[in-house]
Amino acid sequence: HADQFDTAVKGSSLEVGTFKRQASAEAHCKVGHAVVGILWDLQAFYDSVKSDVAEDRAQHKELPLRLSATAAWSHRAPRAVKVGPAVSRVLAIIPHSLVAGCTSSTSIARAVLPTTEELGVSDSDFGSEEGDGLFRHVDDHLQLSWAPTVSRAATRAIALAGVLVEWFRRLRLIIGLIS
Length: 179
What we know:
The chain is of the alpha+beta class and about 180 residues long. The protein is about 40% helix and about 20% strand.
């Protein structure tokens, strides 16, 4: 795990990640940068990841074979969704999914999602006059773009948004309506 902007790590939380995101945006504003932020929520992320995509991405990133094997066999079985003990019938069948909360789900999510290098976002950009950053917490991504002017920051944000949308489309993920 090498991405310092990925907050889905032991001892962290979504709240800690949110504070880091906000602090970065405020720091850029404090030095006079215009900042544009876009929050991307991948809807039903764990139920949208396809096993074949997870396997291909894990192999592409040369991750340990056991991670690829976990993606291949432990998450292919359909899951039935029931509500409470009073409901006896199955409400939905999910034909494929990562099991959220299992020990390998965050690792498989990291394998599936593009790295900052694949997106063309550099950690070293954070100290520059103009740049892009991407804060992640599994399926939530905050894209920050900053520049000396609002129009330049917006142009950067739109360009990176296009790259992200293309990656999400290629990976067959669903962008949530709250994005």
